[in-house]
Design brief:
Blueprint lengths: L5 H23 L2 E2 L5 E7 L4 E7 L15 H10 L1 E2 L2 E2 L3 H17 L4 E10 L9 E11 L2 E6 L4 E2 L2 H5 L22 E2 L4 E2 L7 E5 L5
Antiparallel strand pairs: 1-2, 2-3, 3-6, 4-5, 4-10, 6-7, 7-8, 7-9, 8-12, 11-12
Length: 209
């Protein structure tokens, strides 16, 4: 049986310690999402979707974060928003999304945004309709709660989620431009950010918590 010299043992121990330290640093750092955004942390991450906190968009002014809003208030605002006369979110989707958005806004910083991607079924067949995705960016500024939608009820194939080479459909809305040029939201309890931004809805940001 061969013996390990003290020098070789020390080298191995140091290498293992260094690898562990580097791995810990990587785990604590930010990640890159499917759409290339710098993700600081995930509030919610089911197999097909997310609610996450990421760096504020480049050049955007600081947000008024953190912001306290009750789950019920968040749910009411989301429930009022429509696309072509129909609610964007089903009751089940509101149950899934509203608590995590409210929680994220309470922990987010002024130089951070909250983004989400939510999958569901929308169509004549109800829950048996093909899967779709709805995405958005959420933040508070100038006493207004902002939701910029990226895509709404956009169909996608499960294959896209399983093939890294296929671009992911989970792109949230942006301040700079509309992601879907045809998207036209009815703001419900809120109002549109401008005539040229029917993808961007704002609400009175009255703190409810």
């Amino acid at each position: 049986m061969s013996r390990v010299s003290p020098c070789n043992f020390l080298r191995a121990a140091l290498a293992a310690s260094l690898a562990l330290a580097l791995g810990s640093c990587g785990a604590l750092g930010s990640k890159t999402g499917e759409d290339g955004a710098e993700v600081l942390r995930y509030e919610y991450r089911p197999p097909l979707g997310f609610v996450r906190i990421e760096r504020i968009e480049s050049g955007a002014p600081d947000n008024a974060h953190p912001y306290g809003i009750s789950v019920d208030a968040m749910r009411q605002k989301l429930a009022s928003v429509k696309l072509r006369g129909d609610p964007i979110f089903t009751s089940e989707e509101l149950d899934e999304l509203a608590p995590y958005l409210a929680a994220a806004l309470k922990s987010v910083g002024p130089n951070e945004d909250v983004t989400f991607a939510l999958t569901g079924s929308h169509g004549l067949l109800g829950k048996f309709s093909p899967k779709t995705v709805t995405t958005g960016r959420v933040f508070v500024r100038d006493q207004r709660l902002n939701i910029i939608f990226g895509v709404v009820h956009d169909p996608f194939a499960i294959l896209q989620m399983q093939t890294p080479s296929v671009p992911q459909p989970f792109i949230p809305g942006t301040r700079a431009k509309r992601i879907d040029a045809k998207l036209a939201i009815t703001p419900g309890m809120g109002r549109l950010a401008g005539d040229d931004r029917p993808d961007w809805v704002t609400f009175d940001a009255v703190r409810t918590e």
